[in-house]
Amino acid sequence: MSSGAAHSVLAASAARAASAPVRVTGLGFVTPLGHTTESFDEALFNGRSAVRARTLEIDGLDPIELSVAACEFEPAAVRSGSRLPLDRGTAMALAAARDAAAQAGLHAGSVDPERLGIFWGSGLAGAGVFDDTTRALYGERRRMRPTTVLTVMPNAAVAELALQFGAQGAAIAYACACASSAVAIGEAMRAIRGGWIDAAIVGGHDAMLTPGVMASWHAMRVTAPPPPGAPGSACRPFSGDRAGFALGEGAAALVLESEAHANARGAGDATPFILAGYATNCDATHITHPDPAGQVRAMRAALRDAGIEAAHIGHVNAHGTATAAGDAAEAASIREVFGNATPVSATKAIHGHVLGGGGAIELVAALRTLAHGMLPPTANLHAPDAAFDLDFVHGDPRDATNLRYVLSNSFAFGGTNAVLIAGRAADR
Fold it and tell me: What is the CA radius of gyration of the chain?
């Protein structure tokens, strides 16, 4: 073989590896919709909202009425490998990851620890401990715990996950606001494709339902007030009367593996889902106002990464924050990439905006959509904004028996865009 031919073969092999699908072999989550696939699916496909009204009372300030989606979760029940006290969000991360690993059958001896990575995202890791700490210091004049830094640092969950699973490969925390966990998942996918690791525990969390953080989001005027008597209808993505989002909390974890690794340990046949494409970029135009052009570039780049056309996407899981500017920009970008024939849903109406953990939770929703061959409705969407020419799924779930690929958007403050494409392994 000539040197030119050999180079062509190597280049073709590298190209195949760089675009190879990655298996999803386990899922775990802690969400306002529950901790099991049964409870999650029931809420997802019936549009049952977990959003409730909460009154925030802070000394010296008028009471603030908020819409929030909280988890039924007891962090004290979660034990850490470090034996440190855990922030609520870190405890959620550990609980979700343990469930994902159990579903995947991932345990000591099933993977080379040097080939196992942790890729995790959070918008404001340690928010609960930080809020408690500042209140103790400035309000009660109490000394700080010596473990404070270790529980609020951005990679606290990553460190705990690495200890839990003995992961000695790359262990990286991503903080890209509302795109954090989607970026973490996509970058793990790239690391597996590149041959740097064989498997990764990925996902993200946020637990920001603390006084200081809730008051801060309220001050930005992007959160929806709870409608009297109907707090579950507060968040109304793509609706003509949308009024902002409801803050949520939670965590979601996935186990990702190369196809060869999953097959070698007998997990290949039991795992019908793949990550097929990913892209991330930055608008670089405004720190809070999204740019449809940047979102278009990200979606098209993810399609190229997956090696598919826009027509192959059977469903778009929209970022859908129910803010005036956010929904308008995303509706325009989806229309530019897909026209008006691809069905669109947004799930933040039922589980709230989990911020840095949202991309992971919404990818779980996309995978459950694939599992059932059914499209979830966008809750509270009774009258879509007349300016948005898109096929919104609302009212009842929609049958999608032949669904092959779904696309999930995560668009963040700071201009970071992240797009993930998932599919069925049998259809690739």
Answer: 21
